[in-house]
Structures are given as structure tokens and as C-alpha cells.
Write a structure and sequence with these properties.
Elements (H helix, E strand, L loop, with lengths): L2 H22 L13 H4 L13 H9 L2
């Protein structure tokens, strides 16, 4: 794996962490328990999910040759 691909994986993980924290963090500093798994959140709205884009899958699709 090239250094650029490794850096991209790290960036995607950081962005996903920010998005998860936005959905599940509490304002008083205590963490809330996730009520729904991340894969369900990333499912399309037509299939009952929230429609949040899964960046790992999107990146693989866009970088496919």
C-alpha cells in the first residue's frame, strides 16, 4: 500500500470518527450508547437507513479503474 493510500485511510477514519461523535456524543462530556450500528446509519433511506455516505465504500468506488 502506498503512502498516499495509507494517508487516505487515516483521513477517512478521522472523518468517520467526527461524524460518529456528532451523532452519539453528549453535551456534558459523557458518551452515549449507540442505538443503531454504523452500517445501518450508512444504509440508503429507501432501505430504512439514515442515508449517510460510507466514505470507505465511496472511496473504493471512485478510485476503481
Amino acid at each position: 500500500m502506498s503512502w498516499a493510500a495509507r494517508e487516505l485511510v487515516i483521513i477517512v477514519k478521522k472523518i468517520d470518527k467526527i461524524r460518529r461523535n456528532f451523532l452519539w456524543d453528549c453535551f456534558d462530556g459523557k458518551r452515549k450508547m449507540a442505538k443503531v450500528c454504523w452500517n445501518h446509519i450508512c444504509s440508503p433511506k429507501e432501505k430504512g437507513g439514515a442515508g449517510v455516505v460510507n466514505l470507505t465504500i465511496k472511496n473504493k468506488a471512485l478510485s476503481a479503474k
